[in-house]
User: Which sequence fits this backbone?
């Protein structure tokens, strides 16, 4: 990209003589300052506190005017954030247009800088400043939101546009006849800047359009010249009929014959072809030749020129109307005027060329005969002269005599003579039709750039200078700060009458070490009334912190310790924190809060009971018990009204069985039964009882014997079960008696899905009921039956679940199913993760077995039977043996009786 023209700094050597207006304005400067009525104060930011890490200033209006420093005007003070000494982290300060334009800045000679009657009129704006704890800074002004974001194109709330009227400044600049009206319109102007982690500032600006407007009598003079040309052409057309007659009479001059020419031609009214306004456009430039008004859309002009930067992509401190830009404006104006004139001239040519012309010339020689030549076509066709069909010739008598007198050999040559005569006349009279169109236009617009456009733009540059993306070497907050302005406008820049800054944003950020506090406590377990030492790192250097003990719910315990100092490295001064007397033992947290950043750090602390002279002791009775029995454990000297843990351990210190938690009474004593698990190997063991408050423990030995003897009520006698079976073959209420868990299963204690098969043993061909509980209501499940190899035996789909989450489904064990275990699985069709199973045992179909209806199946023993035909035991077997004995007795009696009867006979 081409380097931009260096911006002219205020106070530079003037390019033009000082205007009379400027002299008068300077003369009135002192009076203007006294009459201004502005509130000048220290409202604007001066210097940040030495300890401030960051500053952000968004200020829309600033600069100098008539000796007044606009940066010090209280009514338009910006949004200033400073951290940590002032307002932060974010400050906003919107300004309405009525505030901006109500300022009384008298430039002298009855000129005001701002307001409805002033040179500059401004729209509503927003101003934003941000200064963060970590040294980051941001600022924005103009059409920006409360978060500092630029609203491209402006917004209804903050349009932030600027209208600059420059006409009053034309006096004394030699603008008469060149520029009669001059203004500059700027769309919403905004800027933003940020400095993060002390790095290089990054800035942005936005100007939503810039339009230069002026009226020039010199530009209007081009149109006047065009009208003069049109008037000349109109006069020629009006006298064309007579001119043609005269020309033909002169060309056909015969003493032997009379010549008569009739011309049928109606000249067009060229004024009717001229548009009400003649407007030309080219690359963002619009020119109205009828009024001399010129509008230059600078954004479009720059975008259309690949050699120029776009309006919102200009390098820092770029002059909006730099030499290359002015050259582009000049080319655009010239091209726009040329295009407009070209269009008008072309329309005139088309109108004239399309006008019909009919010429009839008769040569009458009474003796020799007569000739009539007729020419019929449009002016354009006649001028081209290439169409022979335009001319017809009719003759009578001795025509050769007439042709010879004219020096012609044929009738056709006579027609050509007429065509050339009329065509030559038109060519001489209507040169704008015969000349090249570009030459015709050049004749009207010649020297346009040198005589009109150049002088006009020179006047513009004497009146105003506009800089965009302004970035001064030192920011508005002094050394170390950075500023970006969207626009800076200088009026009469050779000796500035006023330099106005629009949409300035300034930051000063630093790199601040991140605050990441951490603390430790030593010891991490203390009794109520004692203290622990708190140490910490990563706090804000040379600052303070606050310590607070909190319970598990986050409630404060005791008073905080405030103003704990940190050193230059952010290390916390070692501080003792005492746990208040009477604090309930348990888990607590010490919270350290950085007083500058408000960041916190935590450490866990366990509070135990107050120190006391406990002396735990434990005994067991009996000291020798068989496995499966229990012993009574007694403890003394434990923490009163607390708990202790009882655990049986083997010789290696490994736990045997589950531990038992016991409550201590007001004197620290307890009594508890400790069961020795069934199957515990005989030997020496230890009962260990630990105080849950202090962690202290006591222990006593316990000997476990081999457990010989008999069990009562369902226990084994000499290693066998009485009658060989349990009562009814089931456990009462699902629990074991004598040393086992009582009610070991929770009654209705789970809502987990479950599946049952009833009966859980069946032969092929038998019916079973598959039931389910606690499935999702009003859904369906799929029941799948698989064998021990995982092969699918059967699948039941779409089983409906009732509102209470239960389902039932009858299923017949297929004939030919091999004996063994089948797995019955029910899966929720909507949530496959919900799936539960039950087991079904399949027996052989032959033998003395019990079917589901209670009938006896031959070949199987009662109790499920035995496939190998072994004798059965139990009540059912005894009945069978009794029946067989009775049968043998009857048979025996019969035989004996028969034998006696034979002997008697």
Assistant:
């Amino acid at each position: 990209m081409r380097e931009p023209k260096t911006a002219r700094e205020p106070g530079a050597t003037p390019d033009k003589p000082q205007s009379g207006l400027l002299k008068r304005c300077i003369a009135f400067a002192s009076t203007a300052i006294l009459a201004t009525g502005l509130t000048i104060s220290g409202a604007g930011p001066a210097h940040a506190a030495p300890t401030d890490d960051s500053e952000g200033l968004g200020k829309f209006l600033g600069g100098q005017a008539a000796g007044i420093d606009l940066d010090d005007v209280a009514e338009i003070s910006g949004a200033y954030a400073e951290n940590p000494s002032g307002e932060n982290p974010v400050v906003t300060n919107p300004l309405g247009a009525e505030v901006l334009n109500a300022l009384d800045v008298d430039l002298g000679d009855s000129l005001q800088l701002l307001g409805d009657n002033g040179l500059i009129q401004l729209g509503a704006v927003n101003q934003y400043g941000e200064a963060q704890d970590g040294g980051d800074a941001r600022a924005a002004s103009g059409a920006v939101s409360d978060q500092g974001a630029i609203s491209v194109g402006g917004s209804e709330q903050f349009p932030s546009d600027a209208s600059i009227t420059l006409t009053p400044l034309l006096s004394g600049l030699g603008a008469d006849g060149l520029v009669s009206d001059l203004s500059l319109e700027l769309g919403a102007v905004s800027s933003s800047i940020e400095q993060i982690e002390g790095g290089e500032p990054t800035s942005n600006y936005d100007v939503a359009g810039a339009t230069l407007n002026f009226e020039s009598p010199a530009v209007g003079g081009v149109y006047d010249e065009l009208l003069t040309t049109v008037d000349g052409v109109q006069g020629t057309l009006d006298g064309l009929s007579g001119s043609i007659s005269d020309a033909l009479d002169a060309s056909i001059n015969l003493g032997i014959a009379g010549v008569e020419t009739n011309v049928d031609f109606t000249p067009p009214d060229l004024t009717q072809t001229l548009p009400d306004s003649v407007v030309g456009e080219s690359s963002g430039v619009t020119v109205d030749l009828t009024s001399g008004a010129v509008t230059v859309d600078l954004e479009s002009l720059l975008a259309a020129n690949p050699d120029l930067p776009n309006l919102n992509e200009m390098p820092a401190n770029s002059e909006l109307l730099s030499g290359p830009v002015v050259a582009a404006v000049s080319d655009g104006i010239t091209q726009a005027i040329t295009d407009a004139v070209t269009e008008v001239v072309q329309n005139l040519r088309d109108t004239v060329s399309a006008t019909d012309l009919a010429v009839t010339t008769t040569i009458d020689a009474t003796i020799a005969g007569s000739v009539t030549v007729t020419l019929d076509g449009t002016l354009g066709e006649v001028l081209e002269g290439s169409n022979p069909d335009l001319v017809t010739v009719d003759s009578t008598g001795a025509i050769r005599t007439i042709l010879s007198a004219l020096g012609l050999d044929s009738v056709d040559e006579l027609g050509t003579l007429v065509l050339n005569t009329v065509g030559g006349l038109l060519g001489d009279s209507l040169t704008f039709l015969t000349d090249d169109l570009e030459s015709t236009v050049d004749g009207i617009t010649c020297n346009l750039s040198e005589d009109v456009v150049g002088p006009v733009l020179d006047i513009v540059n004497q009146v105003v200078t506009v800089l965009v993306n302004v970035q001064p070497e030192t920011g508005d907050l002094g050394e170390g700060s950075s500023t970006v302005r969207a626009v800076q406008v200088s009026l009469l820049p050779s000796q500035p009458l006023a330099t106005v800054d629009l949409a300035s944003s300034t930051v000063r950020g630093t790199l601040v070490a991140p605050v990441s506090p951490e603390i430790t406590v030593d010891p991490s377990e203390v009794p109520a009334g004692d203290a622990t030492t708190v140490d910490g790192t990563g706090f804000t250097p040379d600052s303070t912190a606050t310590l607070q003990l909190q319970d598990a719910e986050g409630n404060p315990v005791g008073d905080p310790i405030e103003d704990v100092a940190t050193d230059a490295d952010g290390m916390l001064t070692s501080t003792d924190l005492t746990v208040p007397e009477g604090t309930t033992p348990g888990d607590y947290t010490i919270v350290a809060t950085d007083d500058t950043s408000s960041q916190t750090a935590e450490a866990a602390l366990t509070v135990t009971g107050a120190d006391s002279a406990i002396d735990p002791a434990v005994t067991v009775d009996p000291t020798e018990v068989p496995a499966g029995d229990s012993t009574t454990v007694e403890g003394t000297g434990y923490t009163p009204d607390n708990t202790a843990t009882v655990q049986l351990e083997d010789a290696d210190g490994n736990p045997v069985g589950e531990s038992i938690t016991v409550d201590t009474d007001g004197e620290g004593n307890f009594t508890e039964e400790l069961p020795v698990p069934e199957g515990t190997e005989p030997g020496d063991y230890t009962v260990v009882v630990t105080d849950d408050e202090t962690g202290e423990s006591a222990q006593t030995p316990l000997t476990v014997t081999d457990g010989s003897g008999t069990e009562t009520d369902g226990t084994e006698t000499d290693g066998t079960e009485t009658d060989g079976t349990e009562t009814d073959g089931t456990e009462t209420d699902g629990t074991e008696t004598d040393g086992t868990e009582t009610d070991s299963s929770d009654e209705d204690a789970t809502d987990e899905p479950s599946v049952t098969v009833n009966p859980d043993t069946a032969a092929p061909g038998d019916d079973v009921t598959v039931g389910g509980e606690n499935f999702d209501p009003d859904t369906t499940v799929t029941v799948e039956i698989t064998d021990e190899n995982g092969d699918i035996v059967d699948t039941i789909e779409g089983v409906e679940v009732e509102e209470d989450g239960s389902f039932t489904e009858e299923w017949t064990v297929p004939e030919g199913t091999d004996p063994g275990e089948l797995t019955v699985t029910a899966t929720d069709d909507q949530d496959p993760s919900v799936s539960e199973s039950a087991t079904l045992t399949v027996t052989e179909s032959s033998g003395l077995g019990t079917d589901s209806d209670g009938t006896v199946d031959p070949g199987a023993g009662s109790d499920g039977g035995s496939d190998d035909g072994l004798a059965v035991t139990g009540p059912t077997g005894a009945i069978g043996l009794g029946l067989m004995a009775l049968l043998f007795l009857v048979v025996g009696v019969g035989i004996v009786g028969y034998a006696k009867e034979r002997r008697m006979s």
About this structure: Residues 319 and 435 are 43 Å apart (CA to CA). The longest helix spans residues 323-353.
